[in-house]
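Example (one chain per record):
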Amino acid sequence: MTPLTIKLGGVAGAHADGLRVLTERAEPGWVIVHGGGAEVADWSTRLGLSPRIADGLRVTDAPTLEVVLAVLRGLVNARLVASFNRGGSRAIGLSGADASLLQLEPADAALGFVGHVSGVDLPLLDQLTAAGLLPIVAPVGADADGQLRNINADEAAGAIAAARGGRLLLLTDVAAVERDGAAVQRLDSEAARRMLADGSASGGMRPKLRAAIVAAEAGCEVQIVDGRNAAAVTAALRGELIGTQVTDTAGAQLAAGG
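Predicted structure:
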């Protein structure tokens, strides 16, 4: 069975129809990585904190880190575990810190307590999925010094997919990647890099494209799909081309004999 890693964005996960498709169709071999940035921002505001984003990443000072841990590892993760279990799965919630699932390196100090994924404990995920469990991963982890850090959920999903192989679905709140106002059906990794370099990819699309590049260049099939749309999610799970497919430029050139 082809491994499937799904990144469920916070906005996408809040839409019952799209989430219902996942909970009803979940299969052995899936790994879910979830976001929850909107909920983190909401709780931060309630607590008098001012959310800040830089290059699509959440600036995470010490008070914000506490909110991130409570909301992502607590509220969001537990709700998703309950939803998938209600749908018939044997879902288990964990974070990148659990059993050192994700190894981290500190990001730019200007981002605060943010980490970049430097390694994935693939045998751990394999053991969980082989036991019939559905891992649902919250994007927080610890660095080599034990410092807890926030991780961009797209980056976490891309790293996990690259380690596992198979397919990566990035479920988000747009129908497809757009370039010059038009939806892009297929995008190779070099074109995605150009969008990052020239600024035509902005906001939350930047970490999505970076994650897609990592996974595609590791040999994964990658799609960016509207997770709010149940029909789009269903089509993507069936393997249909919907949203934006991101491919490895080198692989495409090799296949074409270039």
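Caption: The first helix runs from residue 10 to 13.
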